[in-house]
Amino acid sequence: MQTFDQQRRNDDIATDRVMVENFFGRLKTLWAVCGDIYRWNRKNYDAFFQTCVAVTNVHIRFNPLRDEDGDANMQYINRLRTIGSKKIRDKKKSQHKYREKRKTRLTFFLASESTLAGKAYDSETEMGSDSDDDGATSQLF
C-alpha cells in the first residue's frame, strides 16, 4: 500500500512521462534522422540531434503538444517491437529448419555407415575366412 506522498509523486512522474513521450513523438515525426537508424558519420550525430531538438522546441512553442504526438511515439515503439519480434521469429524458424536438415543428414549418414559396417562383416575378405580348418591360425608365409 502506498502512502499519499508516494501516490502523488507517482502521479507527477506519470504526467511528466506523458509530456516526454509526446515530445519524442513530435521529434520523430518531424525529423526522420531522429526516428530511424542513423547511417551517416557518427561524429556529426550529436550536432544533428541537438539541432533537431532545438528546432522541435521552437515548433512546440508555436504548435503545443497534443495527444497525437504521444500516439506517434507509441506507433514508433510498436514498430520497433514488431521488427524485433519478427527477427526473433525468423531466427527461431531458421534454427528449426537447420536442426531438421542436420537431423536428416545425420540419419542418412548413420544409416549408410551401419550399412557399410554390415557389409564389411559379411564379406569374404577377412583373414582366415577361406581356410578349411576352423580353429587353426593362418600364416602368411
Describe this structure in words.
Residues 5-57 form the DDE Tnp4 domain. GO terms for molecular function: metal ion binding. Its cofactor is a divalent metal cation. Residues 120-141 are annotated as: Disordered. Residues 123-135 have a biased composition (Acidic residues). This protein is mostly helical and 141 residues long. The chain has one domain (4-116). The protein has four helices and no strands. It has helices at residues 4-30, 32-35, 45-62, 67-122. Helix 1 (4-30) crosses helix 3 and helix 1 (4-30) packs across helix 4 (67-122). The protein is elongated. The model has no long low-confidence stretch (mean pLDDT 79).
Features of this protein?
141 residues, mainly alpha, 74% helix, elongated
Summarize the structure.
Residues 5-57 form the DDE Tnp4 domain. The chain is mainly alpha-helical and 141 residues long.
Reconstruct the topology from this structure.
Layout: H1 4-30, H2 32-35, H3 45-62, H4 67-122
Helix pairs in contact: 1-3, 1-4
Domain DDE Tnp4: 5-57
Cofactor: a divalent metal cation
Region (Disordered): 120-141
Distance between the termini: 98 Å
Order of helices and strands: HHHH
Please give the radius of gyration in angstroms. Answer: 36 Å
Instruction: Give the averaged pLDDT, no decimals.
Output: 79
Relative helix content: over 70%
DSSP helical segment count:
4
In one word, what is the shape? elongated
Strand content: under 5%
Question: How many E-type strands?
Answer: 0
Low-confidence stretches: none
* Largest β-sheet summary: none
Number of structural units classed as domains: 1
